[in-house]
Specification:
13 helices, membrane, transmembrane, two-stranded antiparallel ribbon, 69% helix, mainly alpha
């Protein structure tokens, strides 16, 4: 931010945009000072949203209380993307052809690294820690798709609202899905006394409600949170936006990574429903109504968003139009 201020002379996004639009030259972003400043800004945002290679804090999910983990995996990511939208699309849109490439590379790296490492995890909270890196990559696909490189002139970026619309829709759906999954994991962990995936064996026979709720969240993470198969899910919205903006290669990377993620999500479902229990029944369910109420509300929102996502899409469109790009 100090480098950007030094070049533009302002911290107001509109004034930064005016200064950046006059920057010329053969260097990306117009000059080296602005180049370093924007790259460092993206690195800071990348840490906030747990994008690779700034994801080093995500594996610590196993060391925190589950409510804290749920908050970090959802709230900080949503806030990070909100600020990222404002800064990039309001202050630096005139050089968006430069940063869109950077965002696309980070998206591909986040999807690939997150899913590749999640496959080998035996602790379910650690698995979700790496999974959230992959989902940051899916969201970054939509950010990169907010700049149409297919139909515009080489030096004239064209704003594509479908990209940011898809990101906001994905964020809302991801929030409901992840909260449902983490609330279910907290309840299951209390019941079986472990976060090891192997200890989830036979869970359906011992606690069918918890098993089905977690399975619902896992299926939503695979298919993109839409239960009407004749309509596109959140992931498909993001990948379609990428294709429309000339980033077909990034959409292909996303589809391949979605298939990879299906493997470790389905593995958890298979263990819960098909394997025999290898541990003692564990503690009885908690008598406190608060955890169960939180789980019920999150699951209800998840199902509702899957059946009737229209109002979320309309709200996303209104929010994106407020950027004024």
């Amino acid at each position: 931010m100090a480098l950007v201020f030094g070049f533009t002379g302002s911290t107001e996004l509109s004034e930064i945009s005016a200064a950046v639009s006059g920057a010329g030259g053969d260097v990306a972003f117009g000059n080296y000072a602005l180049l370093v400043g924007v790259v460092l800004l993206v690195a800071g945002f990348g840490f906030k949203i747990s994008a690779a290679p700034f994801q080093m804090w995500c594996p610590t999910f196993t060391k925190e209380l589950t409510p804290v983990v749920a908050f970090l995996s959802v709230a900080s990511k949503a806030a990070g993307f909100a600020v990222l939208f404002r800064v990039l699309f309001t202050g630096f849109f005139d050089v968006s052809l430069d940063w869109a490439v950077l965002i696309a590379v980070l998206a591909a790296a986040s999807m690939s690294i997150g899913n590749a490492v999640a496959i080998g995890q035996s602790n379910i909270r650690r698995l979700f820690g790496y999974s959230t890196i992959a989902h940051a990559g899916y969201l970054l696909v939509g950010v990169a798709a907010g700049v149409n490189t297919a139909g515009g002139l080489p030096d004239a970026p064209v704003f594509a609202s479908i990209g940011l619309n898809s990101v906001l829709f994905y964020l809302v759906a991801y929030t409901a899905t992840n909260l449902t999954a983490f609330f279910a994991i907290a309840a299951i962990g209390e019941r079986v006394g472990s976060d090891r995936i192997s200890d989830y064996a036979g869970l359906f026979a011992r606690s069918p409600v918890l098993a089905m709720t977690l399975a619902l969240a896992l299926i939503a993470l695979i298919v993109g949170r839409h239960w009407k198969f004749h309509r596109p899910g959140a992931k498909l919205y993001v990948f379609t936006a990428a294709v429309d903006s000339g980033l077909a290669w990034l959409a292909i990377v996303g589809v391949v990574n979605s298939a990879v993620s299906a493997y470790y999500y389905i593995r958890i479902i298979r263990i819960m429903f098909l394997q025999q229990a290898s541990v003692s029944p564990g503690a009885p369910p908690s008598r406190s109504p608060a955890p169960w109420a939180a789980l019920a509300v999150a699951a209800a929102v998840l199902v509702f968003l899957g059946v009737a996502p229209g109002f979320v899409l309309e709200a996303a469109g209104a929010a994106v139009s407020a950027l004024g790009v």
